[in-house]
Design a protein that fits this description.
Elements (H helix, E strand, L loop, with lengths): L2 E9 L3 H13 L6 E4 L41 H6 L3 E3 L4 E5 L4 E4 L4 E9 L3 E3 L15 E2 L4 H13 L4 E5 L3 H12 L3 E6 L11 H13 L3 E4 L3 E6 L5 E6 L4 E3 L2 E4 L3 E3 L10 E2 L2 E3 L11 E3 L4 E5 L4 E4 L3 H19 L12 E6 L2 E7 L4 E7 L8 E8 L2 E8 L3 H13 L6 H7 L1 H5 L2
Parallel strand pairs: 1-2, 1-6, 2-3, 6-19, 8-15, 9-10, 9-15, 10-11, 18-20
Antiparallel strand pairs: 4-5, 5-6, 7-16, 12-13, 13-14, 17-18, 20-21, 22-23, 23-26, 24-25, 25-26
Amino acid sequence: MAQKSFKYVILGGGVAAGYAAREFAKQGVKPCELAIISKEAVAPYERPALSKAYLFPEGAARLPGFHVCVGSGGERLLPEWYKEKGIELILSTEIVKADLAAKTLISAAGEIFKYHILMIATGSTVIKLTDFRVEGADAQNIFYLREIADADKLVEAIKAKKNGKAVIVGGGYIGLELGAVMKINNFDVTMVYPEPWCMPRLFSAGIAEFYEGYYAKKGIKIVKGTVAVGFTSDSNGEVKEVKLKDGRVLEADIVVVGVGGRPLTTLFKGQVEEEKGGIKTDAFFKTSVPDVYAVGDVATFPMKLYNDVRRVEHVDHARKSAEQAVRAIKASEEGKSTDEYDYLPYFYSRSFDLSWQFYGDNVGDTVLFGDNNPESPKAKFGSYWIKDGKIVGAFLEGGSPDENKAIAKVARVQPPVENLDILQKEGLSFACKI
């Protein structure tokens, strides 16, 4: 069996891996010290592009255009960059066994990889309807979107089923972004989700009302309060209908499912301490096992701002946690200290000509402000979340870069609020004067 040894191994080839590699290079990693092992066939890329520009009918994004680190305005790390830095990219390689005590990883092909320090950056995998034995969920043209290979299959189906009917199962991030992009591709789109409104983990009813109204104005049909319980196929095995729990049946040429993800931690079960569905880390992303770090979606870490521990599934945290872990590794080697991770939760999305940003925590009372009429030619509105008399979260649709910075600041500073009615009247101006 082939065996390779490295000082540092990053397991996973997503966003976190790319940003960690850049930070290692900045810190002065030596040739042949670092390897990235990824089951994907391409160098790390900015995953958010897949549900947006990759599927556009015109001006679509393609690699090498969105390799990391362009998502944060940095240099694009092409495959040659890794070669120049002496970083080994081990692609199309699935690790099937991890022995943390022996510092050994074994691939599906039987290759053995030894390391001194391991960074777990395995990310998440999509939850599939076949996991729940939904009838007919293995039909062709039922898609999930996580990796570039998934996006390529969807692009082919969009071409093959031109101007057809698309059903989007799920009303979260993927559902809203894919609903928009399928409409842009001139499909007849229906969205189905069980919750009373879209994006319920983040949006308030008032925020959701705008997006549902806007999507309806674009011709997207929304079916709430029910779920897909089965699919029928044609003689070619391609999906033909979506059966809903409430008895309705929807025609479909393409189905895209976005019902959530789960962190990829199975390889490490029983070997490392877990909490809240992820691998427990400290403020430097060190796990309970010496020389093992976990970053991005898989890490449950101390959220200093709120004095609790959380797991965050978002590209911003994937980038920043990876950089923090590398700084901590290098500082530890040099006998220096580094600052604790002090993360302000941040989420964003773009669809059609809309663009929103959210910072902080969405708990407590909400105050909606601005123009959230879906019929407005240029709607601009936001929301604050107030807990224990302080603003803890802020959302803004249609903000300028400076306005988005202002709501980030207000969520970080957490100013006190005495009167919610006055806050509603002041709206965005309250954040801009902090």
